[in-house]
Specification:
45% of the residues lie in helices and 18% in strands. The chain is an alpha/beta fold. It starts with a strand and ends in a 7-residue tail after the last helix.
Length: 451
């Protein structure tokens, strides 16, 4: 933390500009060594200056240099940003000069790590920075911005402050029993206050379960017998001819994948080989992959042919998807109806045909209904966003459940206080009130260099 770091903060390639970021106690001094223009040591904070980066007398690039003095910077250290022309050679040369004059190359995420260690942001906000950089949809962006603005951190801190107030009052009661004018915490008080804390934590878990597919996307497997229209459906959903379509059964021998965004949520769609008994070696490999895709999918689109009577193979596929979120898609509804499903008592049935797109919008609406898209789009976006955070929330809930048992058993307050402290400490790990270096290294290694 005592050295000065530098890194390219923009994607390296040909472009209008590239930015090199420098942070640390010697940031201004080091950049000033290679800058021909105003004396950067004498300029005001948060100002931009025109000049040239030089190596001895050789001009390396024409630049704009932003000078930002601590503590009002991203890292709360002196920060200098050099805006170069976006060429690879010139950008690398400027970075090379910085390293030769005393900077160290920053490790991935080190600027954000310094922002955390210097107290500008907490761990939730640091993780939100990474989420924002990696967001692919508008919903992911909204959730990341919510975390970056500290809304989730505030919720966690409010719960911890509530716990701390209870713990403090219990300790005063235990340590100073002779005082008559202090508030005395009772088991009845805990019975009133603890459930409110539990409701808030349980809501975070519920929201996480409802929205965890937001980041990964929904894996959708199109399943069915050969020649029921799986590839045609994939092409319609993707709005491109990605899969080969013929009237020959078994045309699709391997899985074909594509991605669409439905109301801001990613659908990873897989067109599988037709599932049937076959002696064809290549086709049997495709069938095996189809069954694996069925197992790993979050949503199954099981296609049946409206123009054919239901077969034992169809019934077998229906039974294979009983424990999965499934939409039965009746394809070819423009042809005479021979399919009879009245005896099967099936839910989530949508009728379509891929010739004139009839029913495709209904299919999309059914997907949105099954995965609570309305709830996701209309929420406040205060979500737990990753496994580290939700693990700690669940740990806190487990301790809280033990606390409730202790309260109902009328255990002594000093024993119950231990559980309250454990919950308080566990929630503190989420925002980084306590941490270890291994956790930080693991967290920031996935950041891009320069952030």
């Amino acid at each position: 933390m005592n050295d000065t770091i530098a890194s390219i903060a923009t994607s390296l390639g040909v472009g209008a500009i590239s930015i090199i970021r420098v942070s640390g106690t010697e940031a201004i001094k080091i950049v000033n060594k290679i800058f021909k223009g105003k004396d950067l040591k004498k300029v005001a904070s948060h100002t931009i200056h025109y000049g040239h980066i030089i190596n001895n007398e050789e001009i390396i690039d024409e630049v704009l240099v932003s000078v930002m003095k601590k503590p009002k910077t991203y890292t709360m250290e002196d920060v200098v940003e050099i805006n170069c022309h976006g060429g690879i050679a010139s950008t690398n040369k400027v970075l090379e000069l910085l390293l030769l004059n005393g900077c160290r190359l920053a490790s991935p995420g080190e600027f954000t790590k310094r922002a955390f260690l210097n107290g500008r942001i907490d761990l939730i906000e640091a993780e939100a920075v990474s989420d924002l950089i990696n967001s692919e949809t508008d919903l992911e962006r909204k959730v990341a911005i919510n975390g970056l603005e500290g809304n989730l951190s505030k919720l966690i801190k409010d719960i911890r402050n509530n716990l701390l107030n209870i713990i403090s009052n219990i300790e005063v009661n235990i340590d100073y029993p002779e005082y008559q004018d202090i508030y005395e915490v009772t088991l009845e008080d805990l019975k009133k206050q603890v459930p409110n804390i539990k409701i808030k934590l349980e809501k975070l878990v519920m929201d996480y379960e409802n929205t965890k597919l937001l980041h990964k996307g929904i894996n959708v497997a199109i399943i069915g017998r050969p020649n029921v229209g799986k590839s045609s459906l994939l092409n319609k959903l993707l709005d491109e001819n990605k899969a080969i379509v013929t009237n020959i059964p078994g045309t699709t021998r391997d899985i074909v994948e594509g991605t669409i965004y439905l109301d801001g949520i990613k659908l990873n769609i897989i067109d599988t080989a037709g599932i049937r008994e076959t002696n064809d070696v290549v086709e049997s490999i495709g069938v095996s992959k189809s069954l694996k895709a069925l197992k790993n999918a979050n949503l199954i689109l099981l296609l049946l042919n409206n123009n054919e009577e239901i077969t034992n193979e169809d019934k077998d596929l229906i039974s294979k998807t009983n424990d999965k979120t499934t939409i039965i898609v009746i394809n070819k509804n423009d042809l005479n109806t021979k399919l009879d499903l009245t005896t099967l008592n099936l839910e989530n049935v949508v009728s379509i045909n891929t010739i004139d797109n009839q029913g495709i919008d209904s299919l999309k609406n059914k997907i949105k209904e099954l995965f609570n898209f309305d709830m996701i789009n209309n929420s406040d976006f205060t979500y737990i966003t990753n496994l580290r955070q939700i693990t700690k929330i669940k740990e806190a809930l487990n301790i809280l459940n033990e606390l409730e048992i202790g309260i109902n058993q009328e255990q002594d307050l000093d024993i119950l206080e231990m559980d309250l402290k454990d919950i308080w400490n566990t929630l503190g790990l989420i925002i980084g009130e306590s941490y270890d270096e291994e956790l930080l290294d693991d967290l920031f290694k996935n950041f891009c260099v320069g952030k």
